[in-house]
Amino acid sequence: MTTTEEAVERVAQEPARRSRVRYRPGKGVLVLPPLLLVLALLIGPLALIWLYSVGLRSNIPGTVTSFTTANWKDFLTGPGNPFRGLFIHSMLITLTVSVLATVAAYPLAYFLSFTARKHRYTLLLLLLAPFFTSYLLRVIAWQIILNDQGVANWAIQELGLQPKGHAISWLIYSNFSVSLVLFYSWIPFVALPIFAVLENMDRRLLEAAEDLGASRFTTFLRVTLPLSLPGVIAGFVFVLIPTTGEFITPLLVGGPDSQLFGNQIQAFFTNSPDWGYGSVLALSLVVVVIALMLVFGRFLSTDLRQTSGGGSR
Amino acid sequence: MSPSQTPFNLNRRSFLTGSLGAAAGAGLLAACGSPSAPSAGASVSRPPISKEPGNLSMLEWGGYEAAGTKAQTAGMTVAGKSYIDRYGANSVTYSYITDDDQALQKATLDRRFDLMHPCHENIPDYVDRGLVQEWDTSLLPSFGDLNPFLMEAGQYKGKQYMIPWDWGYGSLTYRTDHVDPADATGWELAWNPKYSGKIALWSGASTNFEIAALKLGIDPSKMDNLSDSELEQAKQVLIQQKPLNKFYWESEYNQMQPGIKSGTIWIAYSWQDTLVSMKSAKVPVAFMQPSQGRLSWFCGFMLGATTSNYYHAHEYVESFINKAACAQMTNAFAYGTSNTKVTPADITDKALAESLHLGDPHAIATTAHLQSWAPNRPKLLLAWQEIKAS
Amino acid sequence: MNPDAGRLGRVLLRVYFIAFIVFLFSPLVVLLVFSVNSSPIATLPINGLTTKWFHQAFSNGELTSALVRSAVIGAVAAVVATALGIMASIGLSAGRMRLRTLAVSVLMLPLVVPYISLAVGLLILMQAIGVGTSLTAVVMGHAVIALPFAILVILPRLRSLDPSLGEAARDLGASEFGAFRLVTLPLLTPSLVSSFLICFTTSFDEFAIASFLAPAGSPTYPVFLYGSSRTPALLPEVIAVGTLVIALSLLIVVLAEGGRRWGERRLEGRSSAEPVVASPLVATAAAAETS
User: Fold this and answer.
1) Stated pTM of the model
2) Per the omega criterion (within 30 degrees of 0), is the bond before C45 cis?
3) Hey, which residues 365-384 in chain B have their CB within 8 Å of chain A?
């Protein structure tokens, strides 16, 4: 207890005082309603998904329900299982996009923190602003840009890079379009933790390196970059985790061959009565994401501690 | 196809094939149908129509929205108009069917639809899941004009669960200015690598398996009852076909037809209404007559089991099944109708109607392969998911 | 002293940044341009300008009711999430160490669970309890996913408050709840507004849960958007309304930041330069995106 609290304690024990002890453990009970909400509407659904995946519940009327790991076995170990293949394809796209986004975002964060000193926060806001607008609308906008009659093809044909009337068809409904839109969507949020870490970096270290004779580039390579690594990893995680479960972008700009794992889950629950198999996929996705969080989570908490310690500078 | 060789024991199918043999030749002026079997009296007490909430929620195909609603942009000008004139353009809300499997799923999840318009092979599933109730045909003045062969086929377990309304064919529509006619002789056109990226099959799983079965040369009468090994074969060829698609279309009017018009795709699975749309848009297309035969279907109206708009629903359907509505529908889409009072005099494009045998509903069974209920539907759907994931 | 890249480096970085800003805003500009395009097809070149799509959009009953529906759902979900967020923040500040870590982990779970998996789980849950699709389920689903953001915004602010202010209120005779209501709550106001805005945005833009749980005839705005993005006839209206929604969102961001700075200056005599968006890093990152 802090000294303040001790003082209060003493005061509170005096008779004929209306006020009671502050910071009673009783206040902790306020955390229960939110906890119950999460338990009911998050843990509960996950548990139900589990039950469906092992056959203990079914939505096909008249099915005998009994515990079975058949669907799980098939997904995890079945030879040539297409859903597993889709998962791997999905993860490859996710990783590619995440790496590219992180690499592309670093110079942005660097620019903000080092070059654009005075207006860095305003510029940061400028960078982040599009992301408070509707995600679906932005993907629809990309659909307009990339499709056969769209802005991109028009520009390419106007510039003479393609004969008129011959659109580049792989611009839309392809792995390219999906990857591009995902890359586009996440860059600013990758830049954010890198920026935060760069901001918190003790500039004197950089001064010291330069005083010791290092060139600017060497300073960057051997001091700035390594010190900013936690932020880089945090940024990588910021894009990796959500993109693993992404399905909206492929719905709008993806083709039959560029669907992601999340789309398959959605397809199972919209078109197929076999929710058991779909549940296996849905739960696998959760497990993978949680695993990724556990592996990378350390870097996130370090970052948060560094930056959320307070408001003003 | 020899109908008598079908292995099915389904009552509906055997009646269809039986009535085939008995049916007279074509002629738009079919004999007046006799009234159907008396519908089960409504022993449930229902509030009168004035007490019903009145806002119909309907699961419907794009293009079949009632005339007079904002959503109806496909050229249907009569069907539903009398209902909309009476109750207002906002009295019906439509949720769209992209394919029968998705529709069944949607209806199962959202059991509040007053009306649904699935195709007949789904009738057993809708009934067995308790999604629908039988119609009171005495409330439908035009019911007596409807073709008895189709009406019988809309019955299940002796009750009139579906009012069949529209029927037709499914095949590949292709741009004659881009596709070599020598290539367009059979379903294998969809597998032709020459047209890679210019093909669009439908998202309907059951239909695609039927197409694969026909392409593989499997006995068409078994196309809805594939053995496990046949299913596996069909799955493999569909996986091979997948990369040739630009997309699997889900909406006829928003994806498939605009795609053909703009030349984004040259070959698409479609129904014969595309012929009419493309003709008016002056786009040269043909509706293929594959060597293996076309697919055929008939669909109709089903009544929600828990609807609180019982009488409104009946009125709505009546506004669709009357003669004027059916005639205009046939002119708009070149689909067959179940109303026997529609005569050649009512049809504008007589040549097209003749070539499609629109005068004789039996044509769906005699000149094409009627899509029917698949006993192994869950397996089909799982296999379809695997194809999509491959 | 601010070590920086060399002259050339600075120029390159600046160009890179500007190029990226152009890249980021170009889809928004595209929408703006086509919202006034007289042709119903979104292709270049533009042959004429018109405002008719805006008129048409607002007379499109389905579109406007989807907008209103989403706004109401967003507001309710934001209120619920913020209220629960306050409770959770107070509880977490007061609880014991071990339980607090566990509670935090559970409360932060919605940030991690992919929305598609949660959506299908909620669908199964709603089926199991016999509810099926319902807008209330959508609201509650949105409240759950917004809750962590509310906590991430409110908790640090609560912790940073000077406890002696509350003490003073107690000394002057206020009850516990009174001290909270009269002293703590007003001091929390900037973060409450932040929380409301972030939760509202999360809910308004959320697609996965809404697509599964919203009843067929009552789509939320994102669900409606998705449905009509496949309809060429509706596209100009969608673009027109979309442009307005985007403009509104940007305005809210600017106002929120301005308001926060103003509020903090008034309450504390100084305002932090960090934009409201930067302090709850994870909050803003996931809020606008993972829907």
Assistant:
1) 0.82
2) yes
3) 377-378, 381-382, 384
